[in-house]
Every structure is written in structure tokens, then in C-alpha cells.
Amino acid sequence: MKKLSYVGLGVMGYGMAMNLAKGEKSGKYKFLAVDRDEHVLQKFKEKGYQSTNDIGEATDSDYIFLCLPNLEIVKDVVLGENGLIHKLKPGQVIVDFSTISYLGAIEIAEKCKEKNIEFLDCPISGQQSKSLDGTLSIMCGGKEEVFNQVKSYLDCMGSQVLYMGDNGAGQLTKMINNCALNICVASFSELMPVGVKLGLNPEKLGDVLMTATGSSFASQTLIPKVLEGNFEHGFSLGRAYKDMESMFEVLTKSEIPLPTLSGTMQSYQMALQKGYRDEYKHAMVKVYEELLDVKVRKANYN
């Protein structure tokens, strides 16, 4: 019987791991949840699933799934002094759901390949609610035959599971998607204060930008939050900027000019300099509100 381990039970990882664990009831595999947080591990124990705070117990798994905060942590867990790469046997598979850089994913995959360990970069897209109900988008890079091996497991966690190409392809896809989203956020964050400055009603303007030809997922999701003055941290402006940094690193290496992305990065840089790093990315609207001395808010906003 196959053994699956899931390492990293944070905001997104918890729901994904719980959905994967449910498949244990089919009798086709055994499941192990791994995290340092005893509180979250207890939730798995209560449902009868094995859990541990010792990643070493995952090293005999056929498939090890990771969902970790950043590239540095992924590299430490996989390649570090006590990393998985030193303990796994040829043929074992690491599936990484973390959002890391394209070049970083390729580096890790090459190191794993030297040990005949398979590595798939499979970043995810979707809000926490989608991780809980198993409807995430999962973009995968690596050997197609290995992807086919794990596809049924990925289907437990995502409603759209796509094979994008060789190692790094998953991360590149995620980077492009995130950059497109960031550009959309910057566009309405800059333009709405202009409209308000010149006399437009912010709520009516928001309705147009959420429904007419200029609408986008970004406008539909975030303009209501702007109007309510809600800039609480979901996916912070600082993290959004890091996505663009990763993309810019690839563009520089490949000598590819992207003026729109470069301009968007400058908008984010202004917001970072103003101290909005830890707020949600649409907080950059505040930069232009301050510049034009307006507020893009509902009429009853206090």
C-alpha cells in the first residue's frame, strides 16, 4: 500500500491535507500529516489520521507533498543539511505546492535528479475556501509520467489540475497568472482616484469597473473591499511584489522587455515605500488617494 505524507498545514495546506487524508478511507494508501503546530495536528488526530511533528517520519513515504511559506524554507527542507534529499531513496517523489521562483524550482529539481528523486513543482491558485472544498487550480511542472502517477491525488485537492511542462513550468504559470492579477489591481487602484477627483461617484464607478468591459476578477473581488476601506492582510502587497520580482529575474535573464509589468512594479514600489507592505495588494489605492486628496469609499464610510 502506498504511503503519502503532507508537510505544511498552514492557511492553504490544512484544507488540502485534510482533503487528501479523506482518500485514506478508500484503502488505497496510508496518510501522514506533518507540521510543527501541535494544535493543527490535533485536528487530524481527532479524525483518526496519523500525524507527527517529525518530518523524518515522512521519509519512507512514496509521495511527499509540501506546502511551505517560501523558497528558503523549501530549499532547507529539501536540500538543507538535514533535508529530505539526504534521506530519500531513488524513485520517491516530492510534490511541492509552495509558491517559489521559477529558477528556484529548476534548481531544486536538478539537485533531486542527481539523487534519482522525482520533484514536481505544483503551485496552487485559489483562496482558502477553495483549499477547504478541494476546488483549487493546480499547475504542475516536471516529468509527465510522474505527474500521471500523482494526478489522482491532486484531484482530491483541485478541480483544475493541469500539466504545464518540464520542471519550473508550474511556477512559471503561477508567476504569469499572479503578474496579470497584479497589473489589474494596479490599474483600478490608479484610475478610480482619478475618477473621484474629477467628480465621479466611487460606488457607481466601481459598479462599472466590476461589470463592464474593463472588469476583471481583481476588480470584482477587490473593489468592494476598497469601497469599504477593508485592506486586511489576505495576500499582502509585499508578497505580491515578490512574485513580480521572481518574474523580473526571469525576464532579465532572458533579456525580455515587458513595459506594462515594469510600470506596475513601480506602482507597487511606491506603495511599499509608503508603508503598506503588510496590507492587501489593493492598499496601493491609498497612494493615489493621498496624491489626489480624495477617498474612494462608500457614501456612509466613516
TrEMBL record:
One example GO MF annotation: oxidoreductase activity
Domain of life of the organism encoding this protein: Bacteria
Keywords attached to this entry: NAD, Oxidoreductase
SUPFAM superfamilies: 6-phosphogluconate dehydrogenase C-terminal domain-like, NAD(P)-binding Rossmann-fold domains
InterPro entries per the UniProt record, alphabetical: 3-OH-isobutyrate_DH-rel_CS (IPR002204), 6-PGluconate_DH-like_C_sf (IPR008927), 6PGD_dom2 (IPR013328), 6PGDH_NADP-bd (IPR006115), HIBADH-like_NADP-bd (IPR029154), HIBADH-related (IPR015815), NAD(P)-bd_dom_sf (IPR036291)
Domain 3-hydroxyisobutyrate dehydrogenase-like NAD-binding: 168-288
Enzyme superclass (EC): oxidoreductase
EC number: 1.1.-.-
Pfam families reported in the protein's UniProt record: NAD_binding_11, NAD_binding_2
Domain spans labelled 6-phosphogluconate dehydrogenase NADP-binding: 4-165
Family stated for the protein in its record: Belongs to the HIBADH-related family.
Protein name per its UniProtKB record: NAD(P)-dependent oxidoreductase
Taxonomic classification: Bacteria, Bacillati, Bacillota, Bacilli, Bacillales
